[in-house]
Amino acid sequence: MKSLLTLLFLLTALISNAQNLNKITGLESTAPSVAYSLRQLSTSYTGPLVRIKVGSSFYDVYPDVSTTKFSLSSKISAAIVNYNDGLAAASANALSTIISGSTDATVAIWYDQSGNGVNVLRSDPNAKIITAGNMNTMNGQPTINFTGTNSYLTSSTTVNYSTQTLATVNAVAQNVASTDYISGILSTGDNGGWGLIYNPTNNTHKGYWVDASGGNGAFSNEHTSETKIVTGFIGKTTNSFIYINGTQKGTLGAQLINNGTTDRIYVGSRGNFSGRQFVGNISETIMFPKTLSAAERAALEASQSIFLAPSVTITSSASGAVCAGTSVTFTANVTGLSNPTYQWTKNGIGIPGANSSTYTTTTLSNNDVIKVWVNAGINPSSIVSNGLKLNLDASNPGSYAGAGTTWYDLSGNNNHATLNNSPTYDAASGSIVTNGTNQYISVPQISTSITNVTMQAWVYVNLNTKGPFIKNGTAGGGYAIGIGNAAYDQVGSNVNMLVYGSPGWINTGVSYGTAGWKLVTMTMDGSSTARAYINGTLIGTYTTTPNASFTGALNFGANIGDQNVYYNGKFAAAYFYDRALSLAEIQQNYDAFATKTTAYSSNTITASITGSAPTLTVLGDGCINKTTLSTPSGQTAYAWYKDNAPISGANSNTYSPTTAGDYKVQVTSGSCASISAVTTIAVCGVTADGRMSVLSSSTTLVSKEGEINNRKGVDERGLILTKPFATTPTGTNPVTSGLILYLDATRTASYDGSGTTWADISGQSPAGSATLVGSPTFNSGSTANGSGSFTFGSNINASTTKAYTIDNEITYIAWVNPSQSFDGGVIVRRTDPSFNSGATSLYLVNGNLSYDWNNSKYGWRSNLMVPNNEWSMIVITVNASSVTAYLCKASGITSASNGTTHESLTSRGATNFHIGYDPYRPSDRALKGKMGTAMVYSVALSSADITSIFTAQKAAFGL
To answer: How is domain 313-377 classified at the architecture level of CATH?
Structure first.
């Protein structure tokens, strides 16, 4: 009697403490009627998950502290004599202490975590949770196996749901061998009130269905033996619905609901009908006294996806064929993986930066194949990205799909590796295996720097071996890290480095350690100090004097050109940086890869694209009356434009301009219309009939040699004459909406030729004028100088005095004339000079137009190459889901886009813009050459906006 009173007291306490399911599901304001699970559902619930019977004793089993689930590591109570004795506190013992290889455990009580105390129990338990010493699982998660032989559980406490008109019933279940068409999973009342049912027969309501007091509610109409998340909605005056794994499968009208005032809860049976028992697995089942909202249902089911087999499917926003240039979004739908990470591929190759659950692009070609790979490791973007030049990951099928000789670089720098002499692929570990005889991995030369570099590789070593892990350069120069005895060409287990020059071989004296996977790292800092690390632990620091220069590839597993030593082992990943990583950053890369799991692939979607951007061919010298523009024939319609205005009657595939201007053509193919790039046609010195043109503007003079704007014209007799150019400021800015900064050296209102203030003429108040630093040369008097420009270089630049806050959109525009290729900033914003500073920027990487966003997107390359020694307008536009780069020059406008997410930077705070350099490394990340304008918009401008700005400003730069 005492134990029964204790149980009643505890139940009463729980009833007064109804609680939400905030621990896992996030349903902070939604209290359930009953909630049975093999995981802790709420931080408010501190009791056991189940009471089990082992032999003749009973034990309360509490959530595993580390996983919050039922496991062999769960703490158990001391042995309990009777199945319905009061709750017993957890002891220091784990469940594993009472489980052997032959032990079975059955469930005597499944505790209600709702706080209402409606526990379901059985005096002679038959539902198994452990079989022969092994925990019963569904897809690796704990479950209870209901055998159908009186294995169901029922409550001794009664419930009164008679006045309820709505309910949600939910379960994570797997049918194994149910036989009755009303096989109950969860139900109310001895005669069956409402609940969830499985029907294995071919009756009308087959599969999972909603029971409403004997009324056949919505049903899924599918038989399955797979684990399913099932959610049913029941309404007395509303329709009933059923969802399977988040997808609605059926609906029916309002249902009869006749719940009693003293009903009991059943799990594993429809009421007390002995023949209507569920034969299968149940890991969780919950009932709510309401219809969950769509958001609540989604939150609950998302938390339950851990019980499902890992899988991923993708869908496309495009239905059928779409026109070239259409924005298409692909969406990944993942089940069975918590915290999934993503790598999208196109035609089997990883797309740099495409690491979110969606991928959006406007650059698809017909028959492009899109797929995503998902795993439960840390997101690939969590590796250090600042300075990353190479990112190889054999466990990521977007980098290596298990066949072929190319290991694709995911950094966006196209430093793809070649597998030489047929190394094998180990699918189990996701690694490339070299034989130690002649197999190795080579990457075209990335850097010949002897300072500020980092080389890393994930390697698997069997001890007492030899060979280089990584070697940058060939004979006579470079540096390497490997394993051996005093040198990596001798068998041993010590980590060794080689720096050609002084001191040469460096034996760290530190063993690689136990066999297995390790992250090996070698850095060279700004003073040529070499450091070696294993798994993020520094094992040696050495002062070196490397040879000043060297050539050759970056090799993994070989020292080519010197001793020709090869490494016998595995490579899973490799990275190369153009700077020395800190210890914290090395640890970050270790953490990012160490938790990766097997990747799961989605279905593929093949793009169906109609048409393509038309090709515009210039036949002639680009002068009026002497040039024909053409595009391929055979399309539905053509429309030619001059300066963005349609040309009346110009509707064939060719057109011969008679006046100067910017020309383009729109081509219609079926229902798709696309527009070509712009080409500029000029007034030249000689007319079509050989007579000289009388020119009033010196900006259009052409020399006898055919050069434009070189201060030499041709008179009526054909003789060369010299005429000074007039400075032509940029035209009126046609786009002012969102303009927050406008610096223009061609206009005296922005710079009058003297002083250190480059005035902001955006119209903002206060203005964001820039201060010139390092005495840049001001160039004027000719369009060769951009009708006004500054020559920037190392430590010669400008910065605004005003601070700006950025959300998730921006447009950068600059007119530049580089004197050489450089890796540096054009317009850069950093909240402080350090790396983790919310950088967003427009910059060039050896002429390749690029950008950054929050220090995570700088690896993307537009592959629009900005020419040296001529003027171009370069543009980066960013919105929440994509970036577009524009290169605007004499031959027209070209662009490149990438679908990727951009988070808001408002939390990064306000800071100024740096013009012509990156404050992270001011001296060597500087613009080299001339700069005429710098414009920043707080919005992402359209291509039409870019075209209109280019048209208004190009004359000032001789175009």
So the answer is: Sandwich (2.60)
